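Posting for a labmate who doesn't have an account.
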Amino acid sequence: MKQLIRKLLGSGLLPNTYYGAIRYPRMAKAISHKNDDSQPKVTVVMPVYNVAEYLLDALSSVLSQSYKNFEVIAVNDGSSDGSEKILEMLSAEIAHLTVINQKNAGVAEARNRGVAAMSSDSKYLMFIDSDDLLPKRSIAKLVAAAENSDAQLTAGKTVTFYGVRYFDRPSTASFFAADRAGIKIEQMPELLGDAVVWNKLFRVDYWRAQGFRFPSGVNYEDMTLAAESYLNADRISLVSDAVYFWRVRAEGESRSTVRFEQASLEDRLLSMEQIANRIKAKIRAGEVSTAVLESYQRRIIRHDLQLFVPYLEHVDATYFSTLKVRCKALVGKVSPEQFEAAGGRYNEVLRMVMSSTRAEAIRTLQTLEKAENRLTA
């Protein structure tokens, strides 16, 4: 263990001051880990791209899990910052870590490559991003919930962290207020708002039966897949404990695409349209009620569509036209009462986007912001 730490520090990939952040006991546990085949095997897929500063912490949080039967497949997506070297050093010492190197192809293809490399005896599959963390008992808690209810999909609470500050992810925390076992989406349609894959444990036979695959070349690549996994599951279980720590980076450092970029707008709208279309198909087939669609429409009014409104003053006519036309297609038939009940800071502005001109929508936005500034002055 000490030799591995010396190698990492001597490589120049990590500053010496970072030693204090290397959780020595966790890495020692990772190196000495031996799988217990009496427990269901879990594959954890981690796409890696230029995250050397965070990679060791992310890997140590996974590799030192209390659960006794898992493998980690880290897919290096053409990193150029030393991440590849860190992975090579660790994989030479840690038997349950497999590293795959590929030319840069994006997070979707990295995840797909990791899934394809999964061991044939794995019963469960999960994902972690390479700058985030897993609490020590994440895998154990998710597997226990899945096994106790024969769930095809199990999800748990995400906690956001920035530096040393940790807080519940506001947009989804209420979904995980209590443990739930063996439910369907009809019983809790708001789960469609939990449109990420990294707080979830998928049963492998369910994943394969659904033919799930991440679409490449788009932003928000996991939104449709995550929603569809909830929609199609016969048995969903929820864990109220935190199972995932999602890192928020400093302004300007985040990997998130700037929201006023046209591609970002179109990709998120496409994901929302795909999810809405999947729900409508389920309604036509008699598999879910219209309440599921209504719940999803409230969600995107309150959250997803609101994300783009603050940038109206900085975008061009093409952006505004795209937002206008596709918002109307998504929620244009929602009644005024339901629209108001959905909530959301920019509801009135969003209505103006759909019904009026760009100039009028911007004036409405400016009026709202001035009123808020007066209240906080």
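Reply:
Got it, the structure tokens are right above this. The chain has 14 helices and nine strands.
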